[in-house]
Design goal:
This protein is α+β, with helices and mostly antiparallel strands. It contains three helices and nine strands; from the N terminus they run H-E-E-E-E-H-E-E-E-E-E-H. Strands 1-2-3-5-8 form a five-stranded mixed β-sheet, sandwiched between helices.
Length: 174
């Protein structure tokens, strides 16, 4: 297995665990035709879906003194094709989920009889409404370090989009 496939598999496990904690399903797509690697589904009074594009890198793959506590944001070079997929109009929100792993491969994951630990953190960024890019290779995506992909933030994303859905339908008389 290549290192990139290992990173991808760890990012799937991370996102899946967060979704399980949130009582949401995490359905990995068999084919990436529209830039979406997985769908998060949450039942409720308004069933909701969020499309996810998964990326993973090590600390050296981001810029902005990532390891320093006083730094609030960092940037990630996202391929233009992936950026374009995330900004295009959609019937459901789409987010980038970026797992940042330690440089040392041996520190990525550890397990014991007591716990399973994936080291570092996954962050998310919603890009809908962002402008198109004239770049040819990558677009620098600024991500706030507060935007951790965790159960609380996932619940807030679902709430935000279900409110948007409710407001749009009440204006349309649905």
């Amino acid at each position: 297995m290549t290192t990139n496939i290992q990173k991808e598999e760890i990012s799937i496990a991370y996102a899946s665990a967060v979704c399980a904690k949130s009582k949401a399903s995490f359905d990995v797509s068999r084919r990436d035709e529209d830039g979406i690697d997985a769908l998060i589904r949450k039942d409720g009074s308004i069933p909701s879906i969020i499309g996810v594009q998964l990326k993973s890198t090590t600390i050296k793959g981001v810029s902005g003194d990532f390891g320093k506590d006083n730094i609030e944001t960092f940037t990630y070079p996202l391929k233009v094709k992936n950026y374009s997929d995330l900004i295009k109009p959609s019937t459901y929100p789409r987010i980038l989920c970026l797992l940042i792993l330690p440089e040392d491969h041996d520190e990525w994951l550890s397990q014991s009889a007591e716990n399973l630990i994936i080291r570092k953190c996954m962050y998310y960024k919603e890009l809908s409404g962002e402008p198109t890019s004239n770049n040819t290779e990558t677009v620098s995506i600024e991500i706030n370090k507060r935007d951790i992909f965790d159960a609380e933030n996932l619940a807030q994303l679902f709430m935000k989009h279900s409110l948007k859905f409710t407001q749009n339908n009440s204006r349309e008389g649905v």
